């Protein structure tokens, strides 16, 4: 552990730490562009200069390892002057088109100019012109004039995805980022280059021109796209709904978690939120009788559910839970199952196509909470449940979230099973083939409209927070199940918030013992057996 | 005229052939060196005061001693034959007229640094030197000098000045874009293909056989206290006999111009001299009584660099000369580091504007300020080699620039 002094403050850092990270540990920010902790050292933006005692000139902090006894200064006059010069060099050929640039408001050219630049521009000659609005792939747009050639995107594609689509072409001030011939930026993680681009050179085709970033609110969340549970920030636009045609979720951004996804998020996860504001969202509970659909109040809907569950024996009830539900939802459902003595319970429906998987983040299991459903004990594969329905042993089936027609099962078998039921109740977010057959449809809030926890494939329990209000009358599944429990008199004290449901879960299921929302925090906690 | 060391064979018929080289004592030094211990060879080179002749002037023996002693993998010897410094054309003559001197120097160096592989990176435009040198390599293989513990790969560059910078050269050799690498690690620790690598200039290695054959003391005695030997000066521009001249490193610039090259041509009156290739600060006519070794020119505020001497007579426009130079550096900047990438182009635009009569009274101070601010802030020496001369041209000939700027 080298001990060094930074701006007069002594700090111990792990061996091999560079001076940018050492300064961070000491509480000082060394401005930089090309350095990124996940990528190799490029040393080319030249902004991270610091003074080191006994060194004749300022040195780049990114490529200097902390050494015992080193005395570092990040704010000498000489360092500040050098930064100012480097900022001027970065900006002489920059188009300064902030008013029409999507990066404005989160651009490190703006941030550092205000903090470290503030010089009077001296460049009066024609700037170098380069290609603009060049689509690099399905998700990323390049403006080469805004690019400061930090090479982060190039190194990302070389070192993280190993796909190597990008390079820097030409020389001198005509250098520009570009695609190698015959390639486009269509790897499964392409959106990340937009995140790591410190300026407005790479923008998100899904986000650009939609809403200014300063109108966005953010909530910490978990990507529900697969069993990895990548940590994300949900950026929502509540203040300028007219800016993006009413689309409330503006974008998802990865949130650093060293144990889960580090800085990254796959494109399927990043762009997989369209269903949130899709016209297929179910916004009110409704009954269906043949082709006739009647919208009902929640009170009526809950009464209908309670009645349906009461009309048949407990062994004639089937519950098809979902690994898309949160731990809280699943535990509420588990409570219902236990108190009513329901035995025919399952949660797993095999997908029609096996999911893709890779070594970086993407998991074949496209559900965020399979592990949680397993631990809470809601059965397993749903094949026998469907068989029971087809054979008449199950007469009332409550399906959560699954469109069972989108499974590996033959559609005719599925249809025969569902059509034989006295009552099919369907809870979920978006209409599909299964909800079309249901006698009672209950709108669930999507994950960004509520809070809860998922347990990822490794056994890490992670919290997601409410980012926006539920659409229409949609409600969290735990709230709907809780109402049924109260109306049936099975659990008059059923919680009315997510957090007490989690406390009940922690008390009841050993894997979650001792966990609270507070201890889970932003980084998540491993279940007992995985700790 | 002093003794020829590097150009000793140039006058022989078919000097580029193995037969001619052998007939004049070639490969005798290698026969001697192969019976010496590597450490002994390093000490001989150290004692000879041989300093790198590519530009930086680093002591060669010291450089060789940087290879980690405990390293077990391959060690590479890389020859920098990417001669591209403006005003420099000496390595070309060595490759064309005495290629076996380089091969013999490589063999000795390979023993000193325990390398089994040598790469020779030849400037892409050097077609004839490449042909001559490649033929010599084939001869050396046929004769058994190569291929018995030391192999040589000849690699042609593709026309970028920056590939003459040793780590830019290594990047290019590795098949990557010719971008200089951040240091540390230095090439002697982690160079070509991640292995310890020594990069030496053609002329530097051509000095090695004579040193081994005739002794370090002899070589050191040819030069000054801090630099041994002779070197090849490329003299061009407004002189009566532009050519490559070999002279002891203690020769003065005045002697080179007036004795070796036959004096100033054109108007006959000297205005300025670039003493060490495009990256060296310019000297005025009053500053030519300077010894042409590493330390002599350093003391004079310039540098010997690659010893490319560009002579300008009174008729030469210094602003135009600077414009040509600035265009060169703007064109050749690799674009990796921000100060160099952005300001070489900016400075060229300003100088170009001044030469075209569209200068602004602030331009000269802006150029000087930009040049002075950026110095020392980049990965490689390219940028310092560019802005150093800019400053000298303007500071020493400011009135000539001002005369071109319209008065408001």
Instruction: Output mean pLDDT of chain B.
Output: 96
Report the mean per-residue pLDDT of chain A as an integer. 96
Strand content of chain A: 15-25%
Strand order of the largest sheet of chain B: 6-5-9-7-8
Major beta sheet summary of chain B? 5 strands, mixed
Give structural notes.
The complex is a heterodimer of chains A (531) and B (408). Chain A is an alpha/beta fold. Among the domains of chain A are: 3-91, Ubiquitin-like (UB roll), CATH 3.10.20; 286-530, Rossmann fold (3-Layer(aba) Sandwich). Chain A is 24% helix and 18% strand. Chain A is built from 14 helices and 24 strands. In chain A, the strands form six sheets. Chain A has an eight-stranded mixed β-sheet, sandwiched between helices. In chain A, strands 2-1-5-3-4 form a five-stranded mixed β-sheet, with helices on both faces. In chain A, strands 6-7-10 form a three-stranded antiparallel β-sheet, with no helix packed on it. In chain A, strand 8 (166-169) and strand 9 (176-179) form a beta hairpin. In chain A, helix 2 packs across helix 3 (108-117). Chain A is elongated, with a radius of gyration of 27 Å. Chain B is of the alpha/beta class. Chain B folds into three domains: 18-221, 3-Layer(aba) Sandwich (Rossmann fold); 230-313, Ubiquitin-like (UB roll) (Roll); 318-402, Up-down Bundle (de novo design (two linked rop proteins)), CATH 1.20.1440.230. Chain B has helices spanning 18-23, 28-33, 38-47, 60-64, 90-97, 99-113, 127-142, 166-173, 202-214, 216-222, 253-260, 294-299, 318-332, 338-355, 363-374, 382-396, 398-402; strands at residues 76-81, 117-122, 151-156, 197-201, 230-237, 243-248, 270-274, 283-284, 308-313. Chain B has a five-stranded mixed β-sheet, with helices on one face. In chain B, strands 3-2-1-4 form a four-stranded parallel β-sheet, with helices on both faces. In chain B, a hairpin with a 5-residue loop joins strand 5 and strand 6. In chain B, helix 5 runs parallel beside helix 7, helix 6 (99-113) packs across helix 9 (202-214) and helix 9 packs across helix 10. At the A-B interface, helix 2 of A face helix 13, helix 14 and helix 15 of B.
């Amino acid at each position: 552990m080298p001990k060094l002094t930074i701006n007069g403050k002594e700090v111990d850092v792990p061996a091999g730490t560079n001076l940018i990270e050492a300064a961070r540990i000491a509480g000082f920010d060394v401005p930089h562009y090309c350095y990124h902790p996940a990528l190799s050292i490029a040393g080319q933006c030249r902004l991270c200069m610091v003074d080191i005692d006994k060194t004749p000139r300022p040195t780049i902090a990114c490529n200097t390892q902390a050494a015992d006894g080193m005395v570092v200064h990040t704010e000498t006059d000489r360092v500040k002057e050098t930064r100012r010069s480097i900022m001027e060099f970065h900006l002489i050929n920059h188009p300064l088109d902030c008013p029409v640039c999507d990066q404005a408001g989160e651009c490190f050219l703006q941030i550092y100019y205000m903090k470290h630049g503030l010089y009077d521009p001296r460049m009066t000659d024609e700037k170098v012109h380069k290609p603009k609005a060049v689509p690099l792939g399905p998700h990323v747009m390049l403006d080469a004039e805004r690019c400061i050639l930090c090479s982060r995107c190039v190194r990302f594609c070389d070192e993280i995805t190993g796909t190597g689509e990008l390079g820097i072409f030409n020389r001198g001030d005509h250098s520009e980022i570009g695609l190698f011939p015959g390639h486009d930026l269509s790897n499964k993680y392409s959106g990340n280059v937009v995140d790591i681009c410190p300026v407005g050179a790479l923008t998100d085709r899904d986000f650009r021109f939609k809403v200014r970033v300063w109108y966005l609110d953010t909530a910490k969340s978990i990507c529900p796209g697969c069993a990895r549970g990548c940590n994300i920030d949900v950026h929502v636009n509540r203040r300028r709904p007219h800016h993006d045609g009413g689309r409330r979720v503006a974008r998802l951004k990865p949130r650093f978690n060293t144990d889960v996804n580090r800085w990254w998020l796959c494109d399927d996860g990043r762009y997989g939120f369209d269903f949130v504001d899709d016209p297929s969202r179910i916004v009110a509970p409704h009954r269906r009788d043949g082709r006739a659909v009647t919208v009902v109040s929640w009170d009526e809907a809950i009464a209908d559910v309670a009645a349906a569950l009461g009309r048949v024996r407990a062994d004639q009830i089937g519950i098809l839970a979902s690994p898309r539900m949160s731990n809280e939802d699943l535990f509420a459902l588990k409570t219902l199952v236990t108190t009513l003595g329901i035995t025919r319970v399952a949660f797993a429906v095999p997908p029609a196509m096996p999911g893709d998987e890779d070594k970086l983040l993407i998991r074949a299991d496209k559900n965020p909470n399979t592990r949680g459903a397993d631990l809470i004990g809601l059965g397993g594969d749903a094949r026998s449940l469907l068989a029971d329905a087809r054979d008449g042993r199950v007469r009332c089936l409550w399906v959560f979230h699954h469109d069972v027609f989108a499974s590996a099962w033959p559609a005719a078998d599925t249809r025969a099973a569902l059509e034989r039921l006295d009552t099919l109740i369907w809870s979920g977010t978006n209409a599909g083939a299964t909800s079309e057959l249901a006698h009672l449809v209950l709108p669930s809030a999507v994950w960004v409209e509520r809070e809860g926890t998922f347990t990822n494939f490794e056994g890490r329990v992670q919290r997601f927070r409410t980012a926006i209000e539920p659409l229409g009358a949609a409600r969290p599944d735990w709230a709907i199940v809780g109402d049924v429990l109260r109306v049936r008199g099975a659990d008059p004290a059923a919680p009315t918030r997510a957090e007490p449901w989690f406390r009940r879960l922690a008390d009841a299921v050993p894997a979650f013992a001792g966990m609270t929302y507070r201890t889970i925090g932003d980084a998540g906690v491993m279940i007992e057996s995985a700790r | 005229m002093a003794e020829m060391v590097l150009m000793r064979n140039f006058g022989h018929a078919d000097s580029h052939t193995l037969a001619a080289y052998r007939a004049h004592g070639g490969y005798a030094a290698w026969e001697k060196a192969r019976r010496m211990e590597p450490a002994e060879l390093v000490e001989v080179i150290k004692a000879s005061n041989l300093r790198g002749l590519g530009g930086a002037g680093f002591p060669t023996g010291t450089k060789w001693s940087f290879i980690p002693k405990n390293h077990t993998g391959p060690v590479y010897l890389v020859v920098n034959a990417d001669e591209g410094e403006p005003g420099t054309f000496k390595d070309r003559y060595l490759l064309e007229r005495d290629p076996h001197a380089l091969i013999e120097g490589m063999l000795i160096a390979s023993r000193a640094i325990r390398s089994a592989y040598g790469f020779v990176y030849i400037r892409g435009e050097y077609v004839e030197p490449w042909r001559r040198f490649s033929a010599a390599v084939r001869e050396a293989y046929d004769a058994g000098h190569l291929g018995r513990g030391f192999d040589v790969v000849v690699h042609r560059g593709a026309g970028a000045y920056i590939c003459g910078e040793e780590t830019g050269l290594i990047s290019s050799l590795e098949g990557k874009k010719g971008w200089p690498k951040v240091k540390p690690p230095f090439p002697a620790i982690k160079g070509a293909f991640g292995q310890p690598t020594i990069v030496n200039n053609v002329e530097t290695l051509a000095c090695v056989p004579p040193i081994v054959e005739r002794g370090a003391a002899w070589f050191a005695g040819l030069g000054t206290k801090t630099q041994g030997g002779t070197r090849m000066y490329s003299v061009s521009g407004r002189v009566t006999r532009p050519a490559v001249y070999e002279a002891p490193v203690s020769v003065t610039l005045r002697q080179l111009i007036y004795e070796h090259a036959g004096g100033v041509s054109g108007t006959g009156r000297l205005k300025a001299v670039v003493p060490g290739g495009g990256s060296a600060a310019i000297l005025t006519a009053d500053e030519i009584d300077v010894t042409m070794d590493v330390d002599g020119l350093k003391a004079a505020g310039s540098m010997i660099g690659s010893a490319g001497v560009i002579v300008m007579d009174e008729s030469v426009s210094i602003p135009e000369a600077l414009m040509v130079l600035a265009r060169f550096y703007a064109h050749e900047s690799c674009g990796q580091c921000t100060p160099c990438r952005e300001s070489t182009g900016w400075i060229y635009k300003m100088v170009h504007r001044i030469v075209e009569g569209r200068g602004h009274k602030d331009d000269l101070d802006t150029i000087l300020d930009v040049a002075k601010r950026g110095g020392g802030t980049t990965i490689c020496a390219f940028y310092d080699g560019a802005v150093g001369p800019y400053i000298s041209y303007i500071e020493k000939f400011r009135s000539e620039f001002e005369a071109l700027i319209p008065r408001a």
